[in-house]
């Protein structure tokens, strides 16, 4: 499985070894991580990825991707799938960008790249969510082409459906 490349980013599929080193706080080398990377969310995602690997094997390509800037190779966040597509061809995504790189459209660009990859590989629907007060994340999903699909008392749900059906409220 190779890297996914967008205009400004490289989405690098994380290996078990890379995730283990991230969780242990072991930097891959000087200048490879942007200031503030990895965040607690990145470490949590790496732990979830490792748990999935231990339980069911490496889920790639439906795993975790490190978001790197093409111009210098620095990791600025993560994006990924919470697991492989379900029996209806749907999956859930998550993402995050370090504060020092926010506000430049990187999260939307990374998410668009991952959505394109999912569509090209037969995924029917991609779902995501954001807390009500996380307006920036809601804007990221909308900018990547996801539509609002409902909400509850805690979060607003978004999805992209390539089967031509309306979003399903949750």
UniProtKB/TrEMBL annotation:
<dbReference type="InterPro" id="IPR051908">
    <property type="entry name" value="Ribosomal_N-acetyltransferase"/>
</dbReference>
<protein>
    <submittedName>
        <fullName>GNAT family N-acetyltransferase</fullName>
    </submittedName>
</protein>
<dbReference type="Pfam" id="PF13302">
    <property type="entry name" value="Acetyltransf_3"/>
</dbReference>
<feature type="domain" description="N-acetyltransferase">
    <location>
        <begin position="9"/>
        <end position="167"/>
    </location>
</feature>
<dbReference type="InterPro" id="IPR016181">
    <property type="entry name" value="Acyl_CoA_acyltransferase"/>
</dbReference>
<dbReference type="InterPro" id="IPR000182">
    <property type="entry name" value="GNAT_dom"/>
</dbReference>
């Amino acid at each position: 499985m190779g890297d996914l490349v967008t205009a400004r980013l490289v989405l690098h599929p994380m290996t078990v070894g890379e995730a283990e080193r991230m969780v242990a706080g072991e930097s891959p080398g000087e200048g490879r991580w942007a200031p503030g990377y990895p965040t607690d969310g990145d470490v949590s995602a790496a732990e979830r990825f490792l748990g999935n690997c231990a339980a069911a094997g490496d889920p790639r390509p439906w795993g975790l991707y490190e978001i790197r800037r093409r111009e210098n190779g620095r990791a600025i966040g993560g994006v990924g799938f919470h697991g492989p597509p379900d029996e209806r061809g749907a999956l859930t995504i998550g993402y995050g960008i370090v504060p020092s790189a926010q506000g430049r459209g990187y999260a939307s660009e990374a998410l668009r790249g991952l959505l394109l990859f999912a569509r090209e590989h037969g995924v029917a629907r991609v779902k995501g969510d954001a807390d009500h007060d996380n307006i920036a994340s809601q804007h990221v999903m909308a900018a990547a082409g996801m539509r609002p699909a409902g909400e509850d008392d805690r979060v607003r749900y978004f999805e992209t459906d390539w089967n031509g059906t309306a979003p399903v409220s949750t």
